[in-house]
């Protein structure tokens, strides 16, 4: 018995503006027309494990970032284990702190990059950082210093499932 070839529409995977869930949609055939004889595939949701954010911010931190952005333009953060300001997160105008091979981009807060020294990241890699704000004087070089508040890092250890997801994504 001779089998007839099965003609299926080509498919492509599109993502929503949030990056997922994905949906499979029919693609145009070679002649530029969709083949109306073939059924359109229903929406398919692909369940993908979500890679946990390595850095988050509280509402207070986001409000302070907005205020500082209004005064100084685009911002960046660097978390070091350094001498002068200990391990305080430091906020700078973007580009005024030179990032090098010894720094790791651990995430962004909105469009604000958050870096950490690679040596400190080795200790904190299994931990989610949460940027917060408290009253008091901060790092003398950090932009929030004149505001009477300072950025502070709170943290939580990732669950075993989150660690596995971060490892499979090459993040830790």
Mean pLDDT, to the nearest integer, reads 78
Ends distance: 55 Å
> In the CATH classification, which architecture of the largest domain applies?
Sandwich
Counting DSSP E segments of at least 2 residues, the number of strands comes to: 9
Strand content: 25-35%
**Helix-residue proportion:** 10-25%
Low-pLDDT sequence parts = 1-32
- Our count of domains comes out at 2
CATH topology of the largest domain: Hypothetical Protein Aq_1857, Chain: A
> Could you spell the SSE succession in H and E letters?
EEEHEEEEHEEH
Order of strands, main sheet, comes to 5-4-7-6
The global form is globular
State the major sheet. 4 strands, mixed
Structural class label: alpha/beta
Number of helices: 3
CATH class of the largest domain equals: Mainly Beta
- Whole-angstrom Rg: 23 Å
Which terms summarize this structure?
alpha/beta, Hypothetical Protein Aq_1857, Chain: A, 4-stranded mixed β-sheet, 3-stranded mixed β-sheet, 3 helices, 9 strands, globular
What does this structure look like?
- By secondary structure, this protein is α/β, with parallel strands linked by helices.
- It folds into two domains: 48 residues, no CATH class; 114 residues, Sandwich (Hypothetical Protein Aq_1857, Chain: A), CATH 2.60.300.
- A hairpin with a 6-residue loop joins strand 1 and strand 2.
- The N terminus is likely disordered.
């Amino acid at each position: 018995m001779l089998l007839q070839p099965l003609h299926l529409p080509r498919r492509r995977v599109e993502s929503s503006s949030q990056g997922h869930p994905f949906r499979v949609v029919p693609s145009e055939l070679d002649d530029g027309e969709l083949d109306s004889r073939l059924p359109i595939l229903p929406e398919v949701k692909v369940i993908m494990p979500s890679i946990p954010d390595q850095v988050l911010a509280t509402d207070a931190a986001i409000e302070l970032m907005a205020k500082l952005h209004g005064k100084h333009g685009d911002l960046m953060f660097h978390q070091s284990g350094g001498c002068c300001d200990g391990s305080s997160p430091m906020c700078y105008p973007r580009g005024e702190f030179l990032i090098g091979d010894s720094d790791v981009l651990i995430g962004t807060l909105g469009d604000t990059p958050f870096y950490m020294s690679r040596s400190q990241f080795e200790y904190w890699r299994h931990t989610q950082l949460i940027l917060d704000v408290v009253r008091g004087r901060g790092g003398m070089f950090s932009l929030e210093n004149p505001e009477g508040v300072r950025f502070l890092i709170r943290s939580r250890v990732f669950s075993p499932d989150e660690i596995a997801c971060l490892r499979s994504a090459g993040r830790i």
